[in-house]
Amino acid sequence: MIQFSDVKKTYPDGTKAINDFSLKINEGELVTLIGPSGCGKTTTMKMINRLIEPTAGTIYINGTNINDYNIHELRWNIGYVLQQIALFPHMTIEENIAVVPEMKKWKRKEIRERSEELLEMVGLNSSTYMHRRPSELSGGEQQRVGVIRALAADPDIILMDEPFSALDPISREQLQHDIKKLHQEIRKTIVFVTHDIDEALALGDKVCLMKEGRIIQVDTPQQLVLHPETTFVKDFIGERKSPWQTAIDVVAGDVDSRVITKAAYDKGDYTEQGTFIIKDEDDKFVSALVNGQLADDFIVLKNNMPLYKATDELQKGHQEVYPVLKQDRLVGTLTYKDVLSYLRRETAAKDGVIQ
Ligand SMILES: Nc1ncnc2c1ncn2[C@@H]1O[C@H](COP(=O)(O)OP(=O)(O)OP(=O)(O)O)[C@@H](O)[C@H]1O
Ligand SMILES: [Mg+2]
């Protein structure tokens, strides 16, 4: 857990980069920081691993003031992908990846295996790339190595400052997908800076929107889109690409009366017409009941599926409602009505109609 408590940063020349900054990032959460250039995103990141000291306030990691940690141990446990690609030019890719594992005194064999595994994970053939130098890689490939280098020594926290800025849209989407998958698998705490609202909404469990060193709104992507608190937030949200690209957890309705708990189902006598979705006490999807019968192959949708893909599924017309799952947890339900009201809202926002 990372906690900022009333943090301020004023640079020696008087620039007030960060003000009244209080934010809690839970363990295993992926938080995206977004805001205009110069709003203080990089400054915020660098304060976490003490590359920059705050002027006032305190930052805690797992309840301990970061100043109370040994600075080397603190940094080894925080993977950092810099805003500019910063591989060591004279070292091979393998050596670049091995820097922190070596400091942590990992065994040679472990380091080699880890490097191979990470390269393969981002689609770089390890036997081809391990022995090359950064100048022998394309910009996008270097960025991928920058990302996996930050993961190499298995840190608890990963900071990523616009890690995909030099990538074409397709590689970018591929890497976003990799990060999302990776985050689901390893459940690390990740702070991810981006300029791109689509990226912020697609990746973040929470999105923290900043302006001039302050937090304007921090919320789930769904809340941010549905309930922007200020016109600044609305304008930012309005910069998204086509609404069809939106992830469906933003479009989906809240878990509603169609959802029943397993306990209630076990007790009750559900013979009613219509569809009911059954979840357990941990919000995990269990099954669905259609006209009183348990459905065997009820279709569920993943929360990060783009709307256009979900619409294909809806058009098949197999179900009146689709559970939206984040991993196996139920985060919402999707119906045609949700899609229509979302598109209506989007169009109204684009046309400047006030809702
Ligand atoms: N060393 C420094 N000395 C003085 N001012 C600085 C210094 N570093 C950053 N700043 C200023 O602090 C503010 C925040 O900078 P920061 O780099 O955190 O912004 P950012 O949100 O990361 O921007 P970008 O999206 O362009 O990367 C800016 O006004 C910047 O000019
Ligand atoms: Mg920056």
Summary?
The protein is of the alpha/beta class. 37% of the residues lie in helices and 25% in strands. The chain is globular, with a radius of gyration of 23 Å.
Q: What are the SSEs and their pairings?
A:
Elements: E1 2-10, E2 16-25, E3 30-34, H1 41-48, E4 56-61, E5 64-65, H2 71-76, E6 78-81, H3 93-103, H4 108-121, H5 126-129, H6 139-151, E7 157-161, H7 169-186, E8 189-194, H8 197-203, E9 206-211, E10 214-219, H9 221-226, H10 231-238, H11 248-251, E11 259-261, H12 262-267, E12 275-279, E13 285-290, E14 293-295, E15 301-302, H13 307-316, E16 322-326, E17 329-334, H14 336-350
Parallel strand pairs: 3-8, 3-9, 6-7, 7-8, 11-12, 15-16
Antiparallel strand pairs: 1-2, 1-4, 4-5, 9-10, 12-13, 13-14, 16-17
Mean pLDDT rating: 88
Give the N-to-C terminal Cα separation: 37 Å
Tell me the number of structural domains: 2
How big a fraction of the residues is strand? 25-35%
Derived from helix and strand composition plus strand pairing, the structural class reads: alpha/beta
Largest beta sheet: what is the strand line-up? Answer: 6-7-8-3-9-10
Q: What is the radius of gyration computed over CA atoms, rounded to a whole number of angstroms?
A: 23 Å
For the record, the CATH class of the largest domain is Alpha Beta
The fold-level CATH name of the largest domain is: Rossmann fold
Shape: globular
Low-confidence spans: none
Question: What is the helix tally?
Answer: 14
Can you name the CATH architecture of the largest domain?
A: 3-Layer(aba) Sandwich
